Amino acid sequence: MITKFAQRLKEIRSENKMNQMEFALKCNVQQSCVSKWERGATLPDAEMLCVICNVLHVSADYLLGLSDY
């Protein structure tokens, strides 16, 4: 099942013109990890969520579907 997080992560990563590998390098994770997040197979832990938000310049609330901005 595709979660709001998975959908928004892929959308924002693409808007930032990064492929999964580039994004993975910036987050210091494997590309397969990013793929799992974007497919909704797994979720990042709280610490990684902070890293993702910093890399993408977006709030955790938005990524998690708690706000629309």
Describe what you observe in this structure.
With 69 residues, the chain is mainly alpha-helical. It has helices spanning 4-15, 20-27, 31-39, 46-56, 60-63. The longest helix is centred in the N-terminal third of the chain and has 12 residues, at 4-15. The protein is globular and about 25 Å long. The mean pLDDT is 96.
Summed up, the helix count is 5
How many beta-strand segments?
0
Level-1 CATH class name: Mainly Alpha
- Write down the domain tally: 1
Helix content: 55-70%
What is the annotated CATH architecture? Orthogonal Bundle
In short:
Helix content is 64%, strand content 0%. The chain is mostly helical. It starts with a helix and ends in a 6-residue tail after the last helix.
Question: How is the secondary structure organized here?
Answer:
Layout: H1 4-15, H2 20-27, H3 31-39, H4 46-56, H5 60-63
Key terms for this structure?
69 residues; mainly alpha; 434 Repressor (Amino-terminal Domain); 5 helices
